[in-house]
Amino acid sequence: MTQLPLPDPATLPLTVLGIESSCDDTASAVIRHSPPAPPEILSSIVWGQTDLHAGFGGVVPELAARAHAEKIDHAIEAALVQAGCGLGDLDAIAVTAGPGLIGGVLSGVMAARGIAAATGLPLIGINHLAGHALTPRLTGDTAFPYLMLLVSGGHCQFLLVNGPEEFTRLGGTIDDAPGEAFDKVAKLLALPQPGGPAVEAAARAGNPARFALPRPLLDRPGCDLSFSGLKTAVLRMRDALVAEAGGLRASDRADLCASFQAAVADVLAEKARRALALYLERQPPCPVFAVAGGVAANTPLRRALEQVAQEAGARFEAPPLALCTDNAAMIAWAGIEHIRSGAPVMQEFVARPRWPLDHNAAPLLGSGKKGAKA
Ligand code: KG4
Ligand code: ZN
């Protein structure tokens, strides 16, 4: 009997369904990739829960899990309809298996398991952070190894992305993530949530040099970061201004926002400079510095990081915002990367609330306090 050659996983045309529910976005997407053509995002459904949690000052895990459980099937159906696909057109399912709020993660994993059991499709459990970290390869022709700064509401880390499942963490926050700091500063200044866009908007009219806020950890070597002291410094300034004038003038608020944003930008830029130096020691053939996460939407911050990349001779890669924030296209893409790497597809995996990308890196003290957002 002649044996048919097995298809090469590196070039096989693939259509993969992605499912994401690890925080406060219920998301599903379909990606088709037929090399050498670039990957196509056939659909990407993201249903946020901002309104649901608005009154609570943060994501409420039980509410999030219930909302995911109610909506995930509909999000998957919507993604398939928008993509013009049936389940029979799929080659695999990729689902976020962590890190994140375990109730939410389980909603996605159970839905994915149900479809896999009914169809016999291979099921791949994806690390949500790997989804973010691999996005520059979905949106651009980015070769390994590249440097990635993940800056979101729950995470802040510099990663060397060496391969689809091979990451080296160069440094990260030892307390709050920058998005968390933006959100807390917005709250301190009675600005709406999410705080990042509100602080950025207020900062446009402000003077970034008026308040001398600290630049935490710049006096220490390495790429670790800290943002909680910065937020406390804003609180003290606010209280001093209120005590002095009996209230906060619009100009004070704008100046505080601008000064805070400038401090975050300075810290991230200097740490990025150091991370780039470590990355360039490896002499990558086409150096790339990529960013992802909601905070990467901040224009002055993005500009500062782009300049650092330029100075170091690296290409700056910032995926479109819809792919920087939580979405399922990045999960489907990470599934495609997994299949192409030739790694075995494990049908059985556990959902994990914590799941560091770099198993060799020491845990960062206090990092991921918020836990919910990744
Ligand atoms: O990646 P993301 O959508 O969710 C996770 O954290 O997973 O990021 C949301 C965070 C929020 O903390 C939000 O305030 C922040 O990103 N953010 C911004 C801006 N837009 C969103 N921070 C600074 N400037 C912005 N323009
Ligand atoms: Zn995320």
Task: Write a structural description.
The structure is a single chain. The chain is α/β, with parallel strands linked by helices. It has two domains: 14-141 and 323-362, 2-Layer Sandwich (Nucleotidyltransferase, domain 5); 146-321, ATPase, nucleotide binding domain (Nucleotidyltransferase, domain 5), CATH 3.30.420.40. Helices cover 42% and strands 18% of the residues. The chain is built from eleven helices and ten strands. The protein has helices spanning 50-53, 61-83, 102-119, 128-139, 178-188, 195-203, 228-245, 250-280, 299-312, 321-324, 329-340, and strands spanning 14-20, 25-33, 40-48, 92-98, 123-127, 146-151, 156-163, 166-172, 288-292, 315-317. The strands form two sheets. It has a five-stranded mixed β-sheet, with helices on both faces. Helix 5 (178-188) crosses helix 6. The longest helix has 31 residues, at 250-280. The protein is globular, with a radius of gyration of 21 Å. The model is unreliable at 366-374 (pLDDT under 50). Bound molecules: 5'-O-[(R)-(carboxyoxy)(hydroxy)phosphoryl]adenosine and zinc ion (ZN). 5'-O-[(R)-(carboxyoxy)(hydroxy)phosphoryl]adenosine binds at residues 23, 152-154, 179-180, 182-183, 194-197, 200, 293-295, 297-298, 325-326, 373-374.
